[in-house]
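ok so for the tutorial part 2 we go from a plain amino acid sequence to predicted structure tokens. step 1 is just haveing the sequence, like this:
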Amino acid sequence: MVRGDETRQRISWTPELIEKVRIGAATGMTDQALGKLLGMSRNSICGARFRFDIPSHHDRFAPRELPDGFLELSPTMTVVEAAKHFKASKTSIRNWNKANGITPKATVRPVRPKRVSTPVAPKPRKKKLPAKLRLVGGQSPRRDDGIAACAQLYLQRFGPVIRARTVDRLAANDQWIVMGRRVSEPEMLAMAERKGFAA
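step 2 — the prediction. this is what the tokens look like for a chain of 199 residues:
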């Protein structure tokens, strides 16, 4: 409704109506319950108490009283079922059960079927070459390399030695990269011999 609308019904606060609000507030009724009793909104009751200086004796933090039929029905219900039935929190249900020595109904949880693990074949481990035979770049000596592979292993004591690649990413049989320099196979053998390699 638009504020200031003339068609809006205004409440005439008669002494009798004010006394009803005062009595209801004194008995501990909430503004919402008092509004339902008198047929008006909660804001109207709250405004009347502020306007006519009527104190509220309702404590919203006060413990709730034990509902009717709790002692008979609570032992046959779980905590969740009792909370839904009596419209209370699970903490309140547990506190009431503890105060009255009530053991609630145990919650039956569905048993999950156990997972049957299927045996998995172990993956074969890759055999690593000894430290002396590990080559830079993940390359291993080929059987047809012969003396070139031996020279490569020997030169790796002094730095990285890998087989050169062509434009098509294929290995060049007669090209090597020795410590950053691209050399041919005879040049690599000569470098190895200068450093003490004996075929």
